[in-house]
Every structure is written in C-alpha cells, then in structure tokens.
Write a structure and sequence with these properties.
The structure is a homodimer of 419-residue chains. With 419 residues, chain A is of the alpha/beta class. Chain A folds into three domains: 172 residues, Molybdenum Cofactor Biosythetic Enzyme, Chain A (3-Layer(aba) Sandwich); 77 residues, Alpha-Beta Plaits (2-Layer Sandwich), CATH 3.30.70.600; 152 residues, Maf protein, CATH 3.90.950.20. The first copy, chain A, has 15 helices and 17 strands. In chain A, the strands form four sheets. Chain A has a six-stranded mixed sheet, with helices on both faces. A five-stranded mixed sheet of chain A has the order 14-13-15-16-17. In chain A, helix 2 packs parallel to helix 6 and helix 3 packs across helix 4. The radius of gyration of chain A is 26 Å and the shape is globular. The two termini of chain A are 43 Å apart. The relative contact order of chain A is 0.08. At the A-B interface, helix 1, helix 2, strand 2, helix 7 and strand 10 of A face helix 1, helix 2, strand 2, helix 7 and strand 10 of B. Strand 14 of chain A pairs antiparallel with strand 14 of chain B.
Chain lengths: 419, 419
C-alpha cells in the first residue's frame, strides 16, 4: 500500500518549522504495512499547492495532505483542495457545533468568527472531529484516489491519523496486502564505515533482506528490511540477522527498533538493582532530561546536581576548592570527583558526570572548545574518558550526553572500559 | 531566486530520520534572498529517484539533492545523478587523495575500499571537499539548470552548503535579485485564534506585508513577510509592524526572529544583575538544559538540583519531610519550597521550580497525569501556577518547561502574575 504525503506551509519552506509530521506518519503507516513513497513540501501559495495536488492525484492511490487548515487568512488548503477536486466548500453543521462546544468548554462565551471557516468542507467529504483542536480532518474519496486532509499541528495530526486515516487504510488493505517488515539495530560510539567493515560478511549474505546504515550524530543505526516474504519467514530472518549484528557490534550495540538508549540504560540499572544520579556541568540537565524520557524512571533514577558554576561543584558536590583550583573545572580529576560526588550526595549506586567546554567561547590552547570529560562511578569502579568534539555548542553538548550514556550502559553491564 | 530540494533516503520515508536538512537549507538560503519553492523526499530506490530528478530538472533553475552519498551499497545517488544527467562516473583523483589523507589522520593505515566510491563523480562535475566527512559535494552545471549534490549528514551538508552552494548562488544572483525579507514575532502562553483576534486590525492593515500565524506546542509565532519591496522600505515596514504586534501581544511577547526564549530570559536576568538556579522534578533537567543553550549563560545561570526523588527534595533542597508528606511532592506548597530552596542552596537571586506528574503512570483522581506546578521566586516575591496539560509524557514535560520559562521571563521583567 503506497502513500504520498503533501506537507503544506510557508513555515516549512522558510525553514522556521521542521517537518516532523511526515516521519511520524511514515512510522505509523509502516506498522500497518503501508509505505510512504514520496513526500512533497510546498508553501501556502494556492497555485503551487494546486499544481502539487494535481500531480499527486494523477499518480497516487492514497495521499495525505497536512497543514493550512488553521482559522487565519494564510490557511488555504481547504479552498485549494475544493478547487482541485471540483467540490465547492459547504458548511458542515455538525462540525460547527463541535467547535462551538469546544470554545464553551474552554470558558469562552463565543467562538471567534474566524473559526467558522474550519467547519467548511469540500462537498461529499467526510469530516472527522479533531480531539485536540478546532480543524476537523477530511476524507475525500474518488474513483481510484483517496485524499486525507489533516491539520499541521503535530498532536492534532497524530490524533486524526489514528481516527481518520488508519481505519480507512486498514480496511482497504484487507488481508492480501504485501508486508514490509523492518528491524533496526542501534549502536553508539562507532563510525559508519568501521561498523560496515565489521559487518561486511553479514551484509553480503543478507539477501533476501536489505541492510542500510543510518548515521546520526554519535550513533549509527542499521536497518534490516524484508519485503514480500511471508510474515513468519520475514520475522524469523529479521530476528536472526538482527541478533547476529548485535553480537558482532557489541560493545557498541544497545538495542532494537523503538528502544531508546535511555530505556536500555534503565533496563540495565533495574537488572542490577542500582539507582543512578547525575552531575552535569556543560550539559546542565540534558543528561537527566534524556534519561527521564523513560516512563517509570523514578525506579532507577534519583536525581542530580547541575553544577554549572564552580561554587556549586564545591557546595553541593563536595569537591575541594583547592582541587578545583589545581586541576580546573574541566579536567579528569574534577569529572571523577563529580561522578563520585553525585553518588554520595544523592545516595545513589551509580554516578554519571559530564564537564566540558561547549563553547563557542571559553576555550584555550590547552583546553579548547569541544574538550569534554565524561565519567561513571559504580560500586565496581570508576572510569573517565577525555573527548574532543568538533561542531557547534549544541553538537558538543549532544555528543557528550551520548558518550556518557554509552559509558553508563557499558559500566552497568560490567563492560566498563570497552572501546 | 527559486530553489528546489530533493531529500533522498529510505530512512526519511520510513520515518526513522526527520528531515532537518531542508529547513536548515531554507533558512540559510532565505538569508541570501533565495527561496525554497518545493521539497521532495524520495527513497533510495533508483527508479523513483530518477523520476524525481528528471521532474526537477525539467522544472527548476536551481536544485539541491541531499543524501545517499555514503560508502555503503544502499547509497545510490551518485549513480542515479550520473544516469539522469547522462554523465558517466569518473574517478576524481584529487578527492581520492583527500579522503585517503583523512583516514591517515584518523590513525587508520588504510582507507576502507568501499570509500573509493565516494571519489567517483559524474563527468564534468566539480567536486568540493567535505571538511567533516568523506563524501565530497558535487556541483553540476547545465544550460539553464544547476544541480548541487550534498551528503545527508547534517553537519557535512551544512558545511558544503556554505562552501559549494552559497557562493554559486550569490554569484548568479548578482545585484538585481528580488528580495524577500521576513521577521518573526514570538509569543508564549496564548492560543492562535485568541492572538489573531487581538491583532486583527494590525493584520488587516498590514498590506503590502503578509502576516502568518505559526502555532507550535505552547507557543505561537507571527511571521511578517515583505516581497518585492525596496530593501529599505521593507525593513522599515517590517520593524514597525513587528513592534506594533509585540506591544499588543505583551505579556506573551518574548522576542524577534532568531532570538530564543532562553536568550530573552538571559538578557532580562543580565539587565537585573540576577543569577538563576533551577529545581526540577518531573522535567529532570530539561529546563536547565534549555536555559543553557545560550552561549555565555554561566554569567546568569549558576546551576540547580534535579530533585526527582522525595529524598533529594529533602536532602538537597531542604524541604521539610513533614511538609512533603502533608502536601505531596506535586503541590503548590512543594513547588514554592523548591523555588525558594533552589535560590537558597545554590545562592542565587532567582529560583525556578517544576514539579508534576508527566505520566503515563502515577496519576490519581485528585492529582491526574498532566498536573504540573511551576514556580518562580525572585527578590521581589514568588508565584506558583497550577496547570493541567493533555498529551504525552514528552508534551507535558515540554509544556511545563515553556510555562516555567514564560513565568521566569515575566517575573524578571517585573510583570509576575500577568496572564
């Protein structure tokens, strides 16, 4: 089942908004055996939108158009869809009532007049109420072409994807739909070509599975895809190859598919019965924030200290002022003391620390921007690594968090010092 | 100057990677008066890639293709470009030497053989060395069509955008290029239609400027665009309207254009000579991490406590155990004590605290998932707000951070309690 996406909005073409919707739709469609074959982003210009929608209508069996359904004058998707499909806009009284009711519930006496436009739908379109906003989703069926029109606000789009799009696709797919299944093997701390060399023979003998390497900052994912195989065979082959890759890529391997690195760390901590604390300087909370993306993380995460200033390193983490002065805030010794301090003052089993120079200012010849120390202290010992990262402040902070998390995982697995 | 983008990679169409590159390119092009008019995402399938590239070649004067230049077998952009433009691949000896040298510098004896493919370029193409990776950028000029081919890794893409794409576009633009200028006015804490109503008369009389509302989670941006006006007039009109909107939208207004909310807070703290500390429970560092995205934030940010467990709220923030037991960790009283505690234990002027139930578990009838308290304590007083947010754990944590930052900004401006 092949689907095209049209993402609409000047903010996308101006780069003010990153299109996260298309990826969210693609992930969800893949789960039901659907496949996005093309995404087109276009601005709010009605003529260009019309050109794109006409092309898509001539090419695709299924399409999703997203964005431009708001109540303000720059939202023109409804009109353009009506024009391209030759279906004039008519007022949907039911949707109007639903929107009015929403405003009442939010404590407004009256709905702003501009919101009436959101209850206008192309004739014959089916409107699906928006649980998180005021623009309903639209389903428009023609002979051989179905267009779904969704709002661009991610939360609203996602809810209407579930309520309006997936049921229609699942129904249409019936039982004989071709199945595309995939698995992803995640690694951290090794580069793309080095990993590809380690896995060369596995990749060469992967057929009929496809293998792709997906490098991200500080991480490489390996995606395995099975197309057109019977579901059971696809599953068995994917699992076997994923496990072979994971075994070969140890100690960089940390999980499969939707698992996050934070979840993998949480699982390992839970298995050891250990509780974690962090001490962060240059990352100032990014590590704690990432670790606690996992629901239920309070079971194995106690808290931490954001020791941004030297005073806090001394007063809250108990690092001696003379040591700080002797070694500097960005040093192996201070990082080690931060990890130990986090364990002690929080009363945790494991301490994880980051201190570095994220820049763009504050560097020196001896300690340049990008110099970072990451440390982990456990009941079994401590390890500190010195790293030098290129790139922006954001890059350096992000890579520091990833490195600390990779070290944390390996230390909790009892593999500290690997790589 | 109108440009099309083609973003290539199965990972984009599978939703495993969000296409941040197109937005980055669009922002940079806008700065030199360029305009992205369409973005097409397509997978690694050579036939579909060829179809898209042929369409773009027939339609656009300028195009940038990104992705699929890696050393592994699923990277096919080079071959498809060669085929579509009718230019066979030839070895670029100079690029091969550059890549070999890189591997030597990284301490490898030899370049992996697969990297040779990265020095193959379509005949007549100009290769531009990649400072952050091994795949060079390509510039291919035809009569009436120029194609830039860039790697998909963001850092590499951005460097080659500067080195290969912008100089060519700027040169071609010459002096008579049409200028599109825009300004963005940022707000936090007010909804799209409420804001649109407050600004209705300003929007109606904006012509020849265009006004668009860009809602994001917890924030609404207003974008003003001037197309085709002389630069000086465009600048003056944009500034006048932006300032009028900012005045009308006070207290929700926080900045223009590339300013971030964290920068606005930093500026206000600096102006007051105040230093900030945070105390975070459910957000566990996201507030600290966001605040310190600003270079030089150590001037006005000292640190904080991630008080995820109740023990840490007591031991590090000095909240009395009986108060915690009486009111609960998620309560107005505890939030107030956390903000005050952050000020005191860190020795800061301002304390900002967040405590809540981010879910999906841990809610009760009295204290449901999504219940959050945000608090700010300054030398001038303290304020705590109780909020209830819908959505996922991620949504709730993100909105909590935004609300706390909005309160922080207003408190530091001496407008605490507004809205």
């Amino acid at each position: 089942m092949e689907i095209e996406i049209v993402a609409i909005g000047n903010e996308l073409l101006l780069g003010e908004t990153v299109d996260t919707n298309s990826a969210a739709v693609a992930r969800r469609l893949a789960e039901i055996g659907g496949r996005v074959v093309r995404v087109t982003m276009v601005g709010d210009d009605p003529e260009r939108m019309a050109v794109v929608l006409r092309e898509v209508r001539g090419r695709a069996r299924w399409a999703i158009a997203m964005g431009g359904l708001g109540p303000t004058g720059d939202d023109r998707t409804r009109q353009v869809v009506a024009e391209v499909l030759g279906r004039p806009l008519v007022l949907d009284e039911e949707q109007l009532e639903i929107v009015k009711e929403k405003f009442r519930r939010f404590g407004y006496d009256e709905m702003p007049a501009s919101n009436v436009s959101q209850a206008m739908v192309p004739r014959g379109a089916r409107a699906v109420a928006n649980p998180h906003g005021t623009a309903p989703g639209l389903v428009i069926e023609e002979e051989g072409f179905t267009l779904f029109v969704l709002p661009g606000v991610p939360k609203e789009m996602e809810a209407l994807l579930e309520d309006a799009v997936l049921p229609a696709l699942i129904e249409a797919a019936g039982k004989g739909a071709p199945v595309v299944e995939s698995r992803v093997v995640h690694t951290v701390g090794i580069g793309e070509s080095a990993l590809a060399e380690k896995l060369e023979d596995l990749v060469e003998s992967a057929d009929p599975l496809e293998v792709a390497f997906l490098p991200r900052t500080g991480q490489v994912d390996v995606r395995l895809t099975a197309a057109g195989l019977p579901a059971e065979e696809a599953g068995a082959r994917l699992t076997a190859l994923a496990e072979a890759i994971a075994g070969r890529a140890r100690p960089w391997f940390w999980g499969y598919d939707d698992t996050t690195l934070a979840e993998a760390i949480g699982e390992t901590l839970r298995a050891r019965g250990w509780v974690l604390a962090v001490a962060e300087s240059c990352t100032a909370g990014l590590l704690g924030g990432e670790i606690t993306t996992v629901p239920g993380s309070s079971e194995w995460f106690a808290g931490g200290v954001l020791a941004y200033s030297d005073e806090v390193k001394t007063s809250l983490l108990g690092i001696a002022g003379e040591d700080l002065a002797a070694y500097g805030a960005v040093s192996e010794e201070t990082c080690r003391a931060m990890a130990a301090g986090a364990r002690k003052v929080i009363g945790a089993d494991v301490g994880c620390a980051i201190t570095g120079i994220a820049g763009p200012g504050g560097g020196s010849e001896e300690k340049p921007v990008g110099l970072v120390f990451c440390g982990v202290a456990t009941p079994e010992g401590a390890e500190v690594r010195r790293l030098t990262y290129p790139g922006s402040r954001e890059d350096i902070r992000r890579r520091s968090v990833l490195t600390a998390m990779g070290m944390l995982l390996r230390a909790c697995r009892g593999e500290g010092g690997a790589s």
